[in-house]
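## retry 2 of 3
previous attempt timed out at serialization; input unchanged, resubmitting
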Amino acid sequence: MHANELGFASLELLQLRLRQPPPTWFSTNTAEVVLRHSPLPGDRRLRVHSQDLTHSVDAEVDAADVRLLRRVLDAKENAVSWPAEVEGTTAFVHTHLFEGAAMPDEPVPIGVGDTVIDRICDIEGVPKLSFREARDWLTKTFTLPATGGSDRIRFVLSSSPSEYGTTVHRGFSLLGQRWAADVAWRDDRYQVVRLLEVSHRRNAKPKLGHARLRFVDASTQAESSESLRAALTGLLEDGRSYIQLWHAYDQLEREVRIAEAEELGLARYDTWKPNADGSWSFSLVRGSESERFMRSLRRMETESIEIEAAEDGPPELAGGGSAGRTVRGTVCRPWPSGWTVNLAPPKRSDHRRGDPPLSGVLFLALTGSRISQERRATARERIWSGTAEMPYLARLIEGLDLPPTTPRSLSPYARVLKRVIRESFGGGTPTESQEEALKIALRTPDIVVVQGPPGTGKTQFITALLRCLDAVGESARGFNRTLVTSFQHDAVDNVVRKARNKGLPPARIDSDEKKVRQSARLLRDDIAGRVAQQTEMLPEVERLRQLSELQSLVESYDQAPTTPGDLEELLDRAQRLAGGALDAQLKQRLTKVRTQAAVRNKSAATLLAARHRAAVRAARSLRTSLGAFADDGPDRALHALPELEEAGQLDEDEHTLLLTASERIAPADPRFLEALAALQLRILRRLGTDDTSVPAVPARDPDAQALLHDILEATQNAVQSGAEGISGVLATYLDDLSSDLALIQGTLQSYNSVLASTVQQADSRAMHLVVEAPVPVFGSVVVDEAARANPLDLMIPLSCAKDRIILVGDHKQLPHVLEQKLERELERTGKVADTALLRTSLFQRWFDMFQGKAAQERRITLDEQFRMHPTLGAFVSRVFYEPESTLRSHDSTRALTHGFDAYRGKVAGWIDVPNDGSETKHKHSFMRPREARRVVQELKALAEEDVERKMSFGIISFYKSQVAEIQKALLAAQLLVPHDDEDEIRPVPSMQWTDEKRPRPRLKVGTIDAFQGMEFDVVLLSVTRSGIPDDAIDDPLGKRRYGHLTSDQRMCVAMSRQRRLLIAIGDAEMASRASAPVDPADRGRSLVEGLVAFRELCEGPDGTGIRH
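## retry succeeded, writing output
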């Protein structure tokens, strides 16, 4: 604080005549001066010193000011003076005269806590201040520098701590230009307890204090740092630290990845070229280095191998360097042969990806894991050192004694919260647990764990919470944004699709532009839908939309001419959009230009008709290498055969060869594959294309171009003569919405109070750009599917949470994924005392930890489900959640019935596929082809019965290999079809969507991991495992016989996706309580209790029994 900023005490004005020209240090009104008696005789004389007493100038006052001068000089250190104006040798000096405050000789420390630092952040409009920055602000706001080299700073206060050092200590207020700081005696020292505007202390009698005052850190971080450090050190020495356990896991994970990269090595390439399918083909420099690389690559068993290309190798590998810019891709099947490696770039719209360097090196992808682990390390270090936004977060994670906390008060917001909660639930009433969960989340001083069993409305809770946070003003400032995050993209996308705050979806933050634009598209579609509803009675709007589409079509032809075949389609489309605007002359010209294009199209050998293109895709899809044919060669041949026959591309011998390939069971011999490869080449040449063919170059047709512009002009004239008023405005608005997605995206990111990202992207470059800070800070962090997040990754957003953390999930469902070989290695090396902690998610750790009194503030379970028929809901509750909690069913679930004849009036069924020795192990997975065919048979019967297409179907298996078998059976039953010539299959049109006002996906097939968070009317569960107990095998826990079926968490997900009907298909004997292994921890429960209990449900009054 400067002397001229003082607003207290009596202010006097002295007019001085300087005895010499004013020095530079005297000429500014911010410079403080010290007035002292002059050594020269006379009452009117004085000496004016600089603040540090190193410079001085003699002066005198008028006779009328002698008495005032005496008062100023007698005040000594309790007078504060500064030059207000200087004109030649005449100077006007303002002087504040204070009463002195009695201050102690010893230092006066004043503590500054979290509340005060937060208040300073509010005053300055910044998201975060360190204690040092807060201390500097307080010093600048409330103190004057010491004078003349003294170690006692000066400050204005409202009263004196005159009894300092005794048993009674009075509080006081420090007074600044705008702010006042109330200081009270607490915990055996003075502490700043509040900051308020100085106007509230104007009536105070100011005094000037001189003391060795200093502001000290009394924040939670400082208060707990010593004990926290000691406690963490003890945990570390005992090997019981949860944070350091995961640190050891992280280090080992990195070491294993680098070891895999070292085993593969580096391979130099001298050139690369793009392939027709979008992949990259790299030509390796021949030599021992590349030979070793290719040999190691073929040995790798991983289904998907990511390789990076760069000018130099990565720093982790011997012979590597800085790597620089890298691009990555997945090794394409068939596996590399010779000296060529093909990589498929990521299927994402990453505009920064670019092309590979012209020449460089290939190596196992390391950049992604390096960045990921750097983010983990930063978050872990901030938490461990107590410098995270919640300084005591490490205490919470480690389960140490918690500091005293006070829940936030909601009393001022009671009325508005009641309204917002009601609106968030569509005007209805939330369940008691939903409403209580919202209140706990808003009141919490730090962390809340919300367990959401299946169908209890976790996403609805999150949406309501976002609206409530906004209602209480906690998302009003940009730096107090809320982050909604989850461990994987699907979960984040689900929240973005469903959550709304003030009508806005959360702004998606990611390095992938496609995902970033998702929330912008959602907002655009929401607005467009509402506008469309308002304009249903305005038919001219549709004409304006057609005009806009026609204008875009003409502009696209001007910028990018097409081939004759495409020109035909373009002209047809232009005629449809023009409607009745074309006169006879234009129609005649249109017919002539279209006919000319058709003639050119028929003579263009490189332009393929629809059937021709299908034949080319079929021929290219044939597998002609040993490894590729072993994977799916017969299936490819089977699908190619009808396409090539229909195109007339096969003679009798070729048909026989392809038919043999489709039926082949034994491994193909090299000669057979050579014949198949020759057939593939002959067909491609006959079709007028091969892998090196170049399509014809599109050309612009001047007649067509002129015609299109004339059609556009005629349509504009017709529309303008009929369109008017609000219709045109709305049409233009909708057109702008559609064409300027980037503007919507930028607006969402800049003004939306809610951001959404994966846990890894919470501290990414993309996030830094949006929040405009090197370290993101969020008022609240909401984590969905928190029980599935790896704690290492979960710590990233948690370290950025300033006010509250809300974890939403369910530890009774799918857990986070662990690398078992890493877990075994940690046990072998003894780096940690108890690796069982690795299997406990941070969500479950806190859920178990926050019991008793803490549970009232930090955990709650949503206990009413809306997804399943009450009988199925009670089954899930009894088997997977009781006795810890009971899952009740909402009254609305009684309507979740069905009309399938075979299951009429029932909600559960079991179709027995007895053991026949067909269970097959494939690598680390299992499959039963016979069971897969029975699953598809049942699905087909149900789908045919659902003639109105109102029911959705989910097919779930515990094993990837069984999913593949089911997909093959679905292809054979023509319920799935291949998509183009890629390794992708889709449901046939009749199985893609339900026929409803809001269509839902009608069929999904996958493993359990792909189904969490989803629901279907009917679920068919493929049991897959089928084995006879063998006493000769030591398998007390049933792992060999049952595998994944022993996981309660996986079984809970599998048996809680259905709404109306659950059907298990598999060996019913596996679910017999008599033969299933008993849980050693609970003798009344089976190790596969979910499976056993479901069979018993099927055999009861609510099931169909065991069918075949």
